Amino acid sequence: MLKNIDFQKLYDQHENYFERSISTERVTHSRIIKSIDRKGSDFDVEIAGRSIEGRIIQSITLGKGKKNILLWSQMHGDEPTATAALFDLFNFFSCDDQFSDFKKMILNKLSMTFIPMLNPDGAECHSRVNRINVDVNRDALRRITPEAEILWKYSDRLRPEFGFNLHDQNSYYTAGRSGKSSAISMLAPPFNFANEINESRKQSMQVISAINNVLGNLIPGHIARYKDDHEPRSFGDNFIGTGISSILIESGFIIGDRNKDLIRKLNFISLLAALNTIADESYKKINFQDYYSIPENQSLLFDLLIRNVYSVSNGTSYKVDIGINREKKFDQDSNSFFYKGKIAEIGDLSVYKGIEEHDLNGFTVEPGRVFEKEFRSMPENSEIDQLLKSGYCTIRLEPGAIGSNYSEKPINIVPSFSKYSPIIAVDEPANLILTDNKTGFTVLNGFLIPSDLSKNSILNGIVIS
After folding, report:
1. Mean pLDDT throughout 382-406?
2. Residue 456: pLDDT over 70
3. How far is Cα 431 from Cα 434, in angstroms, rounded to an integer?
4. What is the DSSP letter of 350?
5. Contact 90, 260 (CB under 8 A)
6. For residue 186, what are the CA distances in angstroms to 222, 297, 439, 455?
7. DSSP string for residues in 268-313
8. Distance between CA atoms of 268 and 261, rounded to whole angstroms?
9. Fewest 10 Å CB contacts: which of 89, 318, 352, 364?
10. Are 279 and 247 in contact (CB under 8 A)?
11. Residue 353 contacts by C-beta under 8 Å, 6 or more apart in sequence?
C-alpha cells in the first residue's frame, strides 16, 4: 500500500498531462471523439448509446480492480471543465513516469468507467439541456431521454461502489462568507427530504472530506460544500438511495482564471485524491462529520460591484451600491462566446464582494443614453470614442446591418425601430454613466470603462432588442 502521495508535486506537474487538443472553455463532441480514437490499447472503449440527434456516446474503462467506479461529465452540455480534466487524467494513466507505482496501485484496485460526455447534443450548441430541452439531471425517475437511460444502464450493469457526477457552477459562489470564490464545491446528496445519512452517503462524505484535505493545502479557503437540498429527480440523490456512494463535484471560479484552466487542474487533482483514498480505503478512517466543516456555498459575489454612488429620483439623492453580473453566452452563428451584462441588485450590498470592485463615493449614476441618429453601418472607433465620452452607451443601427447578438466594438446596438429606453433597474442592461465634478466613468454592458479610453477593458457590446 502506497503512503504519502505528493499531491503538491502532481499539482505542479499537471502541465505534463494537459490534453492540448481540448479547450477547457468549450468541449465539442467531435473533439472528444478524435481524442478517444487516439488512445491506446490500455483503454477499453465502447459505444454506450446514442443521443437524440444520433451522436455516439462512448464510455472508457481503465483498471482491472474489484471496486467499480462510474464517472460521468457534461450531462449539462455547457459545463465542460471536468470533461477536459478527464482527458488530462487519461494522459496521466497513459504515461510511465515517477508516479507509475501510484497509477499501478489505482489500476490494480479499481475498475473505472468514464462517460466523458453524456449530453453531446447539448455540448454541440453549448446548452445545459439536451435536444428536446430536457435537463438530463432531472430525468432520473421518468427516463424520458436516451441519455438518462444510458446512465441508468451503466449503473445497473456495473453496480459501482462510487459514482462521480461532474459539473460546472457559476462564478458568484463563495466558500461560506469568507469572500473567497468557490473554486471547487462538493456534495454528498441526500436521498430523502429528511436529509438522512445512510451508509452510501456516509462513504460519500468521507471521500469528500479526503478530497478537501488535499485541496485545502493547495488553495486554502476556496473549497465549499454544495447546498444539500434533496432533488428527487436527480441522479446523485437516486444513486445514494440505491446504494451507490454518489459525489457531486462542481467546477467553480478563481479570479484571473477566465478560461478555467486552473479549475481544470483542480478537477484533475480532486479525482486523483478521490481515487487514491478509495483504492487504499483510507477514507474509512475519516470521521464523516468532517464533511460539515467544509463551508457551504453562498452566492455573495458580483462580477462588478460599484459602491456608494448617488442615484437621483424625484429630486432626491439616495446612496446605493450596484451589483452587476455578466452572463456568458454562446453565439452559434459565429461559434464564439460573448458577455451580457445586467444589473443584479441595487441597495445595501455590504455583505457582498465584487470580483471587480470600486468605491465611487461622491459620484452620481445615470443610465447611459441612446444616440438617436440612425447608423447604416458600424461607426469607426474614433466616433465610438466620442459617443462614449458624451454619455452614449448605445447606438441605433439599421436592422440589416446587425449581423450578430453582440458587437465586437465597445458600443451597444439597438435596431432603429426599437423603443428601448435605458433605465437603472434590476435585470436591466448594465449601461451607466458615473460622474462627479472632475471626472467620469462609463459602465458598458457590465464593464467599467475609465475616462482614459486607451485603457478600455470591455470584451463586447450587445444587441438590445
Report:
1. 91
2. no
3. 10
4. T
5. no
6. 12, 9, 45, 39
7. HHHHHHHHHHHHTTGGGGS-GGGGGGSPBEEE-EEEEEEEEEEEEE
8. 11
9. 318
10. no
11. 174, 179, 300, 301, 302, 305
Percent of the chain with pLDDT over 70: 97
Q: What residue type is 223 in one-letter code?
A: I
Identify the residue with better confidence: 385 or 60.
60
For residue 196, which amino acid is it? E
Instruction: Characterise 17 by phi-psi region: left (phi > 0), alpha (psi -120 to 50), beta (else).
Output: alpha
Considering only 40-49, 51-60, 373-382, which range has the smallest mean pLDDT?
Answer: 40-49
* Helices (H) then strands (E): counts for the chain: 10, 23
Q: Which three cell numbers stand for residue 404?
A: 450578430
Lowest mean pLDDT among 116-130, 249-263, 396-410: 396-410
Q: 439 or 319, which is more confident?
A: 319
C-alpha closest to that of 396 among 411, 377, 421, 375: 375
Over its C-alpha atoms, the chain yields an Rg (Å, rounded) of 25
Burial 439-465 (b: 16+ CB within 10 A, else e): ebbbbbbbbbbeeebeebebbbbbbbe
Give residue for cell 454562446. Answer: 330
Greater confidence (4 vs 153) lies with 153
Average pLDDT over residues 101-127: 97
For position 403, what pLDDT does the model report? 84
- Strand pairing partners for 163? 70, 246
Cβ neighbourhood burial of 89 (10 Å; 0-12, 13-18, 19+): buried
CA 351/CA 358 separation, integer angstroms: 15
pLDDT 10s digits, 272-286: 999 999 999 999 999
pLDDT confidence tier of residue 451, bands split at 50, 70 and 90: low
CA 152/CA 141 separation, integer angstroms = 10
Q: What is the layout of strands, in order, in the sheet containing 56-62?
A: 44-50, 56-62, 110-115, 67-73, 162-168, 245-251, 184-187, 223-225
Q: What is the pTM of this model?
A: 0.94
